[in-house]
Each structure stands twice: as structure tokens, then as C-alpha cells.
Fold each of these.
Amino acid sequence: MTRRSVRRSVRILGVASGSTALVLGLAGSALACNIKDFSAEAKCDGDKGVIVVTDTDASAVQATVTVFLKGVGGIETKVGEQPVTGSKEGARITFAEDWKPNATYRVHVKAERAVDEDIQPDLVTPSTACKTESQTPTPPASTTPSSSPSESAPAESATPTPAPSASESSTAPADTSGNAPSPAAGDSNLAETGANSNTGLIAGLAAALVVVGGGAVWFGMRRRGASRDS
């Protein structure tokens, strides 16, 4: 074995070792937990807001996710903190947060000896809230059916109006006559004379007086004739 062949063998082994190390390094970096494996999104669960964080880390490293709400003047409010174990298909964790439109959230991920940083860029919620005035439930119109004219007509005919009684009909003219104007003071005697039922009695008395008068005349004439004969 010559020196040249040994040198060539060493060179080949070096290239092979370097290639193997490079491949293993790339494979290790590909399987290692990375901040790029995490994503955050603001969604709606019915009329409530939620923040969903997805972990697609194929190495299944357990990490801790913390969500902060960014306020005015750089003041942050902690929303919540949850552990997550990544998977190739994507492991999801949900934070119940009734977020407001155009709000900003900082999502921090920490995995031991792997990740300790924020998801970039910060999460900004949509400009429309989950619950709006138009989504307020209202009773459907069909639940309160309105009665049609054909349905209301039988109800009216089912309760007929009672006919006026005899006493009511007899008192009706008295009510109407009471509304008529009263006669003048000078005409009251004429109305009473013509309508009075004593007219027959007066006529009878007059006839009796005529008979008595006639009898008296006849009796007087007879008495007068008798005195003349004597």
C-alpha cells in the first residue's frame, strides 16, 4: 500500500464523514423544536372569541404557550398559559378570550433547551367582533301567526248579539220622546183638551140637560093648558 493510496483513502473517509455529519445535522435541525412550528389565530366559537395556537413540532417536544394582551402604553395583561406537545399533524390548544376587534396579543413559546421566544409577528384580531347587533336572536315571524279574516269571522258569528227584549223595545219610544222639544206654554191646554178622554162625559151631560130642559118645557106647557081649561 503506497502513501498515495493511503492519502486517497483518508480523503474519501473525510468526505464521507463530513457528508454524514451534515446529513445528521440537517435531520436533527429538522426534527428539533422551532418557533416556526408554532402559529396563533383569533377565531370565533359561536358568539365568543377564542385564540387557537397550533404546534406542528414533529419531534414532540413539550412546550409552554403563554398569551398576553397588549394594552395602551405597553401594559400587558396575561390571558392564560397552557402546555402543548407538538405533532406532525398539528396539536392545537385553545384560550377562551372574548377579544375585541383590532386588539394585539403577544404569544410566547418556551420549550426546554429548544425555544424561548415570541411568535412573530404579534397576533392582531379581526376588525369585526364575534357578536354583533345583527346576530341577536329574534323570534321568527312564523311563531306568532296572525289571525286571518276567515279565522276571525267564525269567532264573531259564534257569539251572536242577543235580540232586544220586549221591555227594552217598549221603553225605547219613551227615550226618544224625551228628546223631542216640549210644546209651548200657550198650546198645552189645547193639546190636553183634544187628547182628554172626558169629551164623551161632557157630551152625555149636555144631552141630559137637553132632555131635562125639554121635559121641563113640556111639563110647563101641559100645566099651562090644564089651567086654561079650568
Amino acid sequence: MAIAADRNPTHFLRRVVQADLAVSGAAGALQLLAAGPLERLTAIDAGLLRGSGLVLMGWIAFLGWALSRPAITAPLARTMIGVNIAWVAASVLVWLEGAIAPNALGVAYLLAQAAVVAVFAELQFFGLRRQQRG
């Protein structure tokens, strides 16, 4: 994996954030541009998909801004980690609390995206620790 191969602690965190930006951008674009077909496939309301797609556009703007800084500081990294953890929690809670009633494919979609976001949070935490030690 290219992210893990980088030995520079500062570069590792930056590469993780770049990957988060790319994946979040792709997911946000998909949810904005294909909300109707996704709703038919997943039984997740198209309005909710579009709304979360818009939230992801804001997220990628924040990540892009963070990447434009000379360094990703500890407070910035902690903010990224916290937002990613909140996304995972919200994703699961809207389903468990009955706010949405996805079909089996919708549950898989929901849990898969939550798992990917959880991995980004973990990698960002790991990258922050590496950066602080390096």
C-alpha cells in the first residue's frame, strides 16, 4: 500500500488526508449526481443522499484547505479525526434509530462507507502520532 510505504511521518498524514479527500469527493459526487438511482438500489431517500453529498463537498473543501497549509497541525488532524468519527456514528445511528429503512444493499452501502471513514480516522490518528514522534 502506497500510504504505508512512506517513511516520512509528515508525508504519511498528508497522504492519508489526500486519500480521504479523493474518496470523499468521489462519494459526494456519486450521491449528488446519482441520488435517484442510488435511492432505487438502496432504499435510502434521495434527499438524504443529496444532503450527505453536499456535506461531503464541504468536507473536501476543508480537507483541501488543510492540505494547502504548510503543515497539518495537531489541532487540524484532531478535527479531521473527530469529524470522521462523528460521520461513522451518525451513519450507523440514522439506521439503528430508524430514521432510514434501507434494504440489504442500502445497509451494505451504509456500513461500507462507515467502515472506510473509520479506517481514515484510524490512519489519521496513526499519522498524527507518527508526526508527533518524528
Amino acid sequence: MSYLLRLRLSDRPGSLGMLAVELGAVGADIRSLEVIERGDGYAIDDIVVELPSTSLPDTLITAAQNVHDVRVESLRPFSDVLDTHLELELIDVVAAAGSDRLQVLVDHSPRVLRASWAMVVAKPGTDVLRLFASSGAPETPLERADWLPLESAQGFASDNDWVPDVWRDAAAPLGDGAKALLLGRTGGPEFRPSEVARLGYLTGIISTVIP
């Protein structure tokens, strides 16, 4: 079984080596790694690990936290590998999709941006319209979207009063910003600033191929 670990760890030589040793001790095999963000003395990494079916996923948390200054931000089942070129694939697929472009966008963007679900939403008046949605998108209607129209990509704090407790969200404008691509992670983690920027770059390019 594969899992995606999001970790905050010290950005210093040897940290990843010590982490690999601890994960290996519980039978975990590191399949891929991506640095999501770097700050003053720390790094946020997404690590895909393979764990034997006989092992409990909680052993990954325990192993990672055996390393000094490592904090596990989230642990989720994962069925893919990290691939930073998936954005180009998504752009090509959307561009070739004809009239179904927006549905194709919400169907594929969760995999590319490691979200739980995606929606295209708009607010032409006082009501919020869900125009397209991926599988797994919440059935609960989005009653408020005061942030529309949207000028640039942004992440939303989980304590905003319009955000349901289990949502962690980010959105980016499509076209003139009257519509937006809304991504959600059920249970977290929250979108890091670098991920929000990545979302904004991607939707900016995709907006050029969506009428």
C-alpha cells in the first residue's frame, strides 16, 4: 500500500538520510520525494512510501517523528507517483477536450494538484453555482463565496466561517475571474503558498485554451 506523507523537517544535511533510516526500519520503501516549500531552516516535503500490507500506516508517523525536528502534517493513501510534469499533461488534455473542457479540468486536477476534489464555481448574482464537479466533491451546497469574482489564486484558512470544518481549500480564477477552480482536501493538509502559486500558474495557462 502506498501513502503520501507530508512532513516539515529541518533543512540541513543528513535530515533526509535519518528519515530514510527510520522509515526503512518499519519496512517502508521511499518511492519518490518532492520539496513543496523551503523556509528559514525548514522544508516541507511530500514523500510517497510503500508499506507492506501487514503494517499499520500509523507506524509511518511514529518512525518519522523519531527524527529530531520532524513533524508529520498529514498522511494519506496514495495511488500515484509524484510527477512534476503532470501539469503539462493536464493542459494538453483540457485543450483537446472541446466542449467538455471544464469537466475534464475538474476530473483531472485533483490528481495533478494532490487534492481530494475539484469544482468550477460562479456567482452571477447572490447564489453560488456549482457548474462542474469531480467525483468526491461534497454534496453540501456552497452557500457563500464572497471571494468571487477572484483576481488571483488564494488559499482559504480553515477557520473562515464559510469553510466546512473538514475542508482545506484553495481557488484560482478562470478567464476574467467570474468563474473559479476550487480545490479541496478533506481533512487537510492546508494548501501551502507554493501550492497556491502553482495552482494560479496552471489556471492562468488553462484560461487561454478555455473560451
